[in-house]
Fold each of these.
Amino acid sequence: MSNDVMIRVPAAVRDRLAVLAESRGVSIRALVEEYVEADFTDEERRERAERAREYMAEHFGVRVTDEESAAMAAKLRDAAARQESSAA
């Protein structure tokens, strides 16, 4: 017995998924799995950030403050925005 489920989406969304999947050489199923695995909830992001901080403190003796983390996040957002605007 399969654990698959059907998700109803508008035809235009299905067609777009098909184009994206074909361009990557994967199935729509694999594409959706890739998207789901690549995105996180805000809570998951916080948990991952906390684990990374703990790892850095334990293995490298580096303690990253909330302020430092926020500053780095802002720099990354700015860099991504610059890259996106230069690609356009």
Amino acid sequence: MDRPPREAAARDAEATNRPDESHFKGTTGLRRLVNALEYSLHGLASAFRHEDAFRQEALLAAALIPIALVLGVGGVGKAMMIASVLLVLIVELLNSAIETAVDRISLDEHQLSKRAKDIGSAAVFLSLVNVVAVWALVLIG
């Protein structure tokens, strides 16, 4: 025998039944897709309900995306304009998730908490700068 039976059994149990993983991890197939859709919709609703910045950026997207569709630019230009706006929403969702996780750990002021939140905020800022740059280049260039 290469391995003692106890070690092999422990390794196999660890690989299939990890105590640090969600019991939802084993879900597969259509149920997994339905669960993922439900979690995503709950996440969007939660962000819209609890995050002022996400609501503002969603309203901005609701205005800019139709404008991009009716502007007299080519398909690639429209796609770039819409993608830049959607990127802001994606980055804001990630920033909100970071802020929520940091706050879940502790509401105490700490330099690392501040750094994490500031870096997330900087990512949102850069995504907004990207919108301005993409729209300007598509419309002017």
Amino acid sequence: MTIDIPSEAGQRAVRGLAARCDVVLENYKVGQLAKYELDYDSLRAIDPRLLFSDLMTGMFATQAVLAALFHRERTGEGQYIDVALLDVQMAMLANMNANYLVSGTPLADLIAERPAHFWLGGLERAGVPCGPINDLAQVFDNEQVRARGMRIALERDDAGEIPLVASPLKMSATPPSYRLAPPRVGQHTTQVLRELLGYDDDAIRATQGAPQADA
């Protein structure tokens, strides 16, 4: 869905949706939403149980949201979740961080002294899990990637077949299902605002900043 946040009608719509939702995910610069009174402090005044987080680091934000929902279930208290892209990038370096912090030498400098086949052969013989650094074409052509079904395609009436990456979650009892292709921009604006906020056509058009046909 789409909403013109700088407009007063758009801001009212966001506040109305926040009052009916559990979690707000946003991807704005720090402090930018405050000028629209759509920041955490403003929305929390509407619903103290609201969870508010940043979409840039979705995987870690999901974990934090689940933990915050558990906390809210016990205490009734919502909270602000600050998950920065920089912090997550640092965390994801994992073993490389440890190698550098312990030895003071980036492991990549040592690896660069020999060709890839030298390291792959030696590590495989030693029983150490390893693999080459591939470009994206090589990734999608990788035998294991294909065997795991990580490339899928879904049909959309206005775009035909859309290539996508599958969910990495493989679950025996409740596996992910792929039913709908990614929506068009604004495809569900009318549906969401009507069903959740009871908006009529004029109110919906006002949230878009200018008169327009139903999204």
Amino acid sequence: MTKSFRLFSFFDESKLVILLYAFQKKTKKTPRREIEQAKNLRRDYYAEKESKDRK
């Protein structure tokens, strides 16, 4: 059996691909908690980036 993985990523200013994380896919539907985790990681990424830009 082939193992499938789901990747969460996004583009930062259309230049840089940010890979948040991946998990093994067990169903067709992405669990809500995984989506929320990706949203939180993306929010944290931009908060940290903004904090560094202010320095």
